[in-house]
Amino acid sequence: xxxxxxxxxxxxxxxxxxxxxxxxxxxxxxxxxxxxxxxxxxxxxxxxxxxxxxxxxxxxxxxxxxxxxxxxxxxxxxxxxxxxxxxxxxxxxxxxxxxxxxxxxxxxxxxxxxxxxxxxxxxxxxxxxxxxxxxxxxxxxxxxxxxxxxxxxxxxxxxxxxxxxxxxxxxxxxxxxxxxxxxxxxxxxxxxxxxxxxxxxxx
Length: 203
Fold this sequence. Notes:
Shape: globular
Low-confidence stretches: 4-22, 194-203
Strand content: 15-25%
Strand order of the largest sheet: 1-4-6-8-10-12
Number of helices: 1
Helix content: 10-25%
Distance between the termini: 63 Å
CATH superfamily: Ribonuclease Inhibitor
């Protein structure tokens, strides 16, 4: 009986380890896709982003203590130039995405809408362009949303104002135009919004 129990425990442990490794491989592939889109890395920040080193030890990467999946991706202030690949939408446990003060450019891929665990998006002071995607409104856990200092144009999607967890949003220093709906009573906490034509602080 004891041998049977020990055998079952070993099988379960192996299955869990294999599943975790498979998911982490998915995260690794997503990050390597991002690395392949980086055209300039003057400080060689991403040198250790390699299959020869554990993903959770890569610079800018923090994994969750329980699930060992990528939870935080922080590449802020690293002097990087490049674009965002759709593969980044496979980081299904990602809670924080921080790319501030780099030279990333282009449009944000719609696959990022799959990142339903996101609480913070910090893409300030890059060169992202195009419309602010309406799918940001599907990120129900989002608390902080900072796109200041980019080249986004058009109006602010009304879906963003339906995010009940949202506390801070900064859209200043873009090329926004037109009008936008005022914040609804679904928004809680401190709400800060900047556009080209107005500045609102609500407490």
